[in-house]
Write a structure and sequence with these properties.
By secondary structure, the chain is an alpha/beta fold. It folds into two domains: 13-209 and 385-402, 3-Layer(aba) Sandwich (Rossmann fold); 227-382, Rossmann fold, CATH 3.40.50. The chain has helices spanning 13-27, 74-87, 90-93, 100-118, 132-142, 154-158, 165-177, 186-196, 241-254, 269-278, 294-302, 318-324, 352-364, 366-379, 386-402; strands at 33-36, 49-52, 124-127, 146-150, 180-183, 203-205, 227-232, 258-263, 285-289, 305-308, 329-332, 345-347. Strand 10, helix 12 (318-324) and strand 11 (329-332) form a beta-alpha-beta unit. Helix 1 (13-27) crosses helix 15 and helix 4 runs parallel beside helix 5 (132-142). It is elongated, with a radius of gyration of 21 Å.
Length: 406
């Protein structure tokens, strides 16, 4: 299995999903070797064999200076590039998106081939575009079947505007070379069928789940005089933070004792801080930064309502995390998770008035809030990682059969 991040060395939901899937596979008796670009020498996980690609020897690659860091996603890379263009020197401004990032992907692919030649395995599983070249290299070196997993497309990350052709080409190459494709939702399946010309029969839908291990279900909800509305996620175009701020202004006009918390990091944070100030929300909106571990659950427990206003969300694990904590949830209809959860509120991301109305309804009507919390907490119990793990196993079997294996 090739991935770009793995907890605790992760920056977002991709690593969380990879951890959950491998844990579910372990429960099903499947042994997994998980390959990541870089990690501390003592990195390990009890249920999976971790292989660090940067430690592989006998691969001659010219070292380059790159703004790409370990576990950095495409969106974060773009944020770094924007910073270099705005504040860097002339040399740094030459480090464009189409060169250094893809050198890192090529470096990973070369090492992946070497790893594949020395590991014993039955099937290759590659997560998202950064690892597709690695998966293809491993397939070409060994003849083993390839399953690619798509968690977010370039159309999701960019909103369909300014799609990077090189990233698109890597994604399409991954889909074309895969024996089976796993998509995190029907929303995503339809997108790759439409934009990449993929045969729908080649795609298996594997919805994500949520982790309950080490979760303190007995922790108490945090109470106080002020009501809290939470946004937790990457502060990027894809996640719709600007729609959250727009709705917050309308809510603040109707609910006086309310605070809005934005937890996360991303390229749109400066813009959101400025936007909040312009709308008179400086004393109503708090920016908590990137949260990790137990702090995430504390944030959910602090909130009276969690809002995910994503513009294009292939799945979205955060609403399940909120429901796990007994927090009412409002999500956009443009999300994969909306396909599988019922005990929550749903709204089109662009409908600011309706988003604000539903936020106000939860804050002002305790019975609604309690109903969503109770039934949402019961519903989320069905989201075990064993379920998507079994669907991955089915995908593996299908891929092996297509390659003429047993």
């Amino acid at each position: 299995m090739f991935g770009w991040e793995f907890p605790p060395f992760n920056k977002g939901g991709l690593g969380v999903a990879c951890y959950g899937i491998t844990k579910g596979l372990s429960n099903k008796g499947v042994k997994t070797t998980f390959v990541i670009p870089k990690a501390p020498e003592d990195a390990h996980a009890d249920h999976v064999k971790l292989v660090v690609a940067s430690n592989i020897k006998n691969v001659s690659i010219k070292e380059i200076h790159s703004p790409m860091a370990a576990y950095m996603t495409n969106v974060e890379y773009q944020e770094r590039i924007r910073h270099l263009l705005l504040h860097g020197n002339e040399k740094s401004k030459d480090e464009i998106y189409g060169q250094d990032l893809f050198q890192e992907v090529e470096r990973y692919a070369l090492r992946a081939r070497k790893i594949a030649e020395n590991e014993d395995f039955d099937v290759i599983h590659a997560h998202d575009w950064m690892t597709y070249k690695a998966g293809i290299a491993a397939k070409n070196a060994t003849g083993k079947p390839l399953v690619v997993h798509i968690h977010a497309t370039e159309f999701d990350r960019t909103g369909g505007n300014g799609v990077n052709q090189y990233v698109y080409d890597i994604e399409k190459s991954g889909f074309d070379n895969a024996d089976v494709i796993c998509a995190v939702s029907n929303f995503t399946k339809n997108k790759i069928v439409e934009h990449y010309g993929v045969d729908p029969n080649k795609v298996h839908v594997v919805h994500n789940a949520v982790e309950f291990t080490n979760f303190n279900e007995n922790a108490q909800k945090i109470s106080g005089n002020e009501k809290i509305v939470l946004f937790l996620g990457r502060i990027t175009l894809q996640k719709g933070p600007d729609y959250f701020v727009e709705a917050a202004r309308k809510v603040a006009d109707k609910v006086k004792n309310v605070k809005f918390v934005i937890a996360g990091s991303g390229d749109m944070m400066p813009k959101m801080i400025e936007m909040a100030a312009e709308k008179g929300l400086a004393n109503k909106m708090l920016f908590a930064g990137f949260l990790r571990g137990e702090d995430i659950d504390r944030a959910y427990k602090m909130a009276d309502l969690y809002v995910m206003p994503s513009v294009s969300e292939p799945f979205g694990i955060t609403p399940l995390e909120a429901m796990r904590n007994g927090t009412p949830v409002l999500i956009s209809k443009q999300s994969g998770v909306s396909e599988v959860v019922n005990h929550c509120l749903k709204v089109d991301f662009w409908d600011i008035d309706e988003m604000a109305n539903k936020m106000i309804a939860v804050l002002n009507h305790s019975p609604l809030k309690e109903c969503l919390a109770e039934h949402g907490g019961q519903e989320v119990l069905k989201f075990s990682w064993d379920v998507p793990a079994q669907k991955c196993i089915d995908a593996y079997k299908s891929a092996i059969e297509k390659r003429g294996g047993k």
